[in-house]
Amino acid sequence: MIPFHQRRSFGTGLRFELLLRVLLGVLALCSPAWAKMPLTPEAYQAAVEYFQQHAQPYDRQRFAAHHADPRWQAQRSLLLGTTLLNGDTQLDSARLLLQNALDTKPPLTAVSQRDASIRLGLLAEKQQQWDQAERHYRNAMAQGSDIACNYLGVLREHQQDYAGARAIYEACLPDRATPLLLLNLGTLYYNGLGVAQDRTQGAAYWQRSFAAFPYDPDTNYNLGIYQQQIRHDEPQARYHLAFAAQLGDREAERKLQSEPLLDKDASGQFAAELQHLDRGQFNLLLDNRIFNLSRQTRIHGETDAAGVTLDHCPDAAGLCVSGTLTADDMAKYLRLALAIYYVDDVLPLQKVDLAELLPHETTAVSLPSSLLKISRAKNNLYSFRITPTQPNNSPNPRIPSPPATPGEP
Fold first, then answer.
1. 109 lies in the same domain as 23
2. CATH no. for residue 175?
3. Which domain holds residue 238?
4. What are phi and psi of 246, to 5 degrees?
5. Domain shared by 113 and 250, yes or no
């Protein structure tokens, strides 16, 4: 499934949601839009009903707003077909709608055309129509899609043609080397699938994938196992497995809680990656961690459902948490903040005793390479910040990276 950035809801309440569902149902029955679709009225109505129940609120709003606009027919088909495919339902209708999205004039944007081609490939692959899937992926590649290279290689892997998959992945290097492609190519080398086994080369591709996008749990888990089992570098193994665990990998979490990794600690390394940056770079790295590690795919500065904001500090390099933060919620948000700032948050959590700190109006605790400051307002709402204790003010700071994997190309 093609990854998308989480779309923000525009505060739609229950009342608006109900009105929107009624409106979409009326449109499905009364609008002549289905007449321009390659579906029967019954199939079109079924697609719209599923869409109104399962699509994102933002997409439902767009669909309702443009139901009568003939220039939006292609986009309507793409929205409906994508939702059906994502739900693994009404797949024949999904295929007809996605193809209609490509064939309709005026055409989709170039990005949406690539998206529709890839989704048609995924649908054909789901139905084991290998030739059709390859045709759609190659169409997307011809339209400029980099991720289609990876999908085409994965198609070969599903057919157990590992040598063919490797050839496709390597033909896409270097210009179309997406993080996922590098992860998959490294896995072929590491396991000796379609190529002579070379674990050093496989891990080198994983390292390149990590450098391009550090927030993939599979990449981090693989590098953690490599560092532990092949290089016997347990601190570096804990670094990657802590990343994987914070990204939701339960197996990585179990390995962190067992010997020999239990006594290691990578929190200082994660803190150092923030500590030696100027403020702009600090904010950028912290924003990426907030988005990828909060487990809410939250945009920085966005207030959550409880009215709490977690963001980089406005007046200094640091992580600030504020809003309607009560004493009862402090443990939850402190743990979240430490997971973002330190990733490997076991040691920092052990240094904080909230029962001792919360009664004071202002209190501070020294953490590894940082200072935690908690403040209580007169209305008994709290805020806190984590700031580096020794910022580096050198003119050209660089983000520290994990030790390079031997043999990295």
1. yes
2. 1.25.40.10
3. 214-264
4. -65, -20
5. no
Same domain assignment for residues 287 and 346 = yes
What angle, rounded to 10 degrees, do the helices at 179-191 and 217-229 form?
30
Residues 321 and 377 in one domain: yes
- What is the residue type of 369? S
Task: Check: pTM over 0.70? Answer yes or no.
Answer: yes
Considering only CA atoms, which of 338, 213, 341, 207 is closest in space to residue 287?
341
Tens digit of each residue's pLDDT (9 = 90 or more) over 237-274 = 999 999 999 999 999 999 999 999 998 999 999 999 99
**CA–CA dist 387, 15 (Å, integer):** 42
- In sequence order, the β-bridge partners of residue 385 are 320, 373
Residue with tokens 């707003």: 65
Q: pLDDT tens digit string along 119-132?
A: 999 999 999 999 99
Percentages (nearest 5) of helix, strand, coil residues in the chain: 60, 10, 35
233's tokens? 């570098």
Angstrom distance (rounded) from CA 334 to CA 286 = 16
Nearest to 310 by CA among 288, 294, 327: 294
Domain match, 235 and 139 both: no
